[in-house]
């Protein structure tokens, strides 16, 4: 980068004053300042784009590592489930072979209950948010129950004594 000290800046200013002249120097200085500002903004935008790209690459790597860890966990869960199912079947076969439960239907169980996966949850279909016992509108009107909120101005107009 340029190494500009105070002495060099003063020398450049003096040369510019002689070459350009005192009438045009302020306008030229504003133009140069605006161009330098644009250049600095452009450099800052490029830096921010590069930083965003680097952050995006880091996020992609992190996402891949998390996905890989998730796949490993899923595989270990499936493996453990398969081992547990195999142990369950062997234990069940051993119990049935030993005479503990000679007939699964007589013991109260069935092969359908032992099937995997368990039955899915079924919603009862009740509309628990819906109020079942609503007060009828004619009763509210007769009892004088307010059904809608009124503003203060509307209440004053409604209950103002009539002019005679």
From TrEMBL:
What membrane topology does the annotation report for this chain? Single-pass membrane protein
Q: Which GO terms describe its molecular function?
A: protein transmembrane transporter activity
The reply on keyword Magnesium is: no
Q: Name one GO cellular component term.
A: TAT protein transport complex
Q: Where is the composition biased (Basic residues)?
A: 123-132
Name the Gene Ontology biological process terms: protein transport by the Tat complex
The answer, when asked if Cell inner membrane is one of the entry's keywords, is: yes
The record's annotation in InterPro entries points to: TatA/B/E, TatB
Compositional bias segments (type: Low complexity) = 97-109
Give start-end positions of Basic and acidic residues composition bias: 70-82
Provide the protein's localization: Cell membrane; Membrane
Q: Which key words are in the record?
A: Cell inner membrane, Cell membrane, Membrane, Protein transport, Translocation, Transmembrane, Transmembrane helix, Transport
Family as reported in the entry's similarity comment: Belongs to the TatB family.
Please name the PANTHER family in this protein's record. Answer: SEC-INDEPENDENT PROTEIN TRANSLOCASE PROTEIN TATA, CHLOROPLASTIC
Record's subunit section: The Tat system comprises two distinct complexes: a TatABC complex, containing multiple copies of TatA, TatB and TatC subunits, and a separate TatA complex, containing only TatA subunits. Substrates initially bind to the TatABC complex, which probably triggers association of the separate TatA complex to form the active translocon.
Q: Which protein is depicted?
A: Sec-independent protein translocase protein TatB
Originating species: Ottowia cancrivicina
Q: Which gene encodes it?
A: tatB
